[in-house]
Design brief:
The protein is of the alpha/beta class. It folds into 2 domains: 213 residues, 2-enoyl-CoA Hydratase, Chain A, domain 1, CATH 3.90.226; 63 residues, no CATH class. The chain has 13 helices and 13 strands. The strands form 3 sheets. The chain has a 6-stranded mixed beta sheet, with helices on both faces. It has a 4-stranded mixed beta sheet with strand order 4-6-8-9. Strand 2, helix 1 and strand 3 form a beta-alpha-beta unit.
Length: 301
Amino acid sequence: MCTLEKRGQLFLLKLAGDGEHRLNPTLLDSITSAITQIRSDPSSSQSVLITTSHGKFFSNGYDLALAESDPSLRVVMDSKLRSLVADLISLPMPTIAAVTGHASAAGLVLAMSHDYVLMRRDRGFLYMSELDIELVIPPWFAAMIRMKIGSPAARRDVMLTAEKVTAERGLEMGIVDSSYGSAAETVEGAVKLGEELVRRGVDGHVYGGMREALLKQVLHTIGSNESASNRMRNSGSKLYYVLKNSVIGETVIKHLKKEQEDNAENFKFCTGFGGIGGILRYQLDMNAFDEDLDVYDDESD
């Protein structure tokens, strides 16, 4: 769960408790509810959001243990985080992540969804763990990383070596805007920055619109993934996934019956974090197919 406090024109959103703040449906709903509350405040367009956490973790990413117990929750968590990130991008105010502990995988994406990232340097790291846990990174994660990390070498180190990035290293990479000696100092730094941004007196709606324009590709990728996930999840009892390897011309067809959807491996094939193409590791030529041909429901007319 999270808590929300208003200090003048600052909204302070805290991920509560001393756990890992895994992004399960309950926590994601709680954060989204807080963002909705902030957006509805009459002074929101003259305010600043600061997101931080209690304990040693900012967020340790998706709740993978929960997803193992119910594979359908992989899609639910990804969908809810995409919606939350889109909300943050469109929020009519500057946003600051005060990272006072580890931020891993989806937790790092959540932090990078803010305009500014402040981090303590005495503990914690930023860690895109997918390489180490053998999950292909979702395309919209990659879109966020491309936008937020300017150096190709830094992007390589984050994604393809799974470097555990300290605050000082994050400053070098351009991921972190400033670092502090403790958790308390990090939050204090975020409050100071937030107050400076409030004093500038920018129109939050203009600010949010400019952020949306800047992150247009991220929003587009989020929307594309949502559409694909919905087609996979909401189709009929028999599904055909058609993919083409553009290098050798091979066509791959995967057919799932309804009863097979309960199988974790089959579900991962269709709707796992990496998506079909990522798991197959094929070079795909999706332009060879109309969008409606991606999924077939042979019970439809």
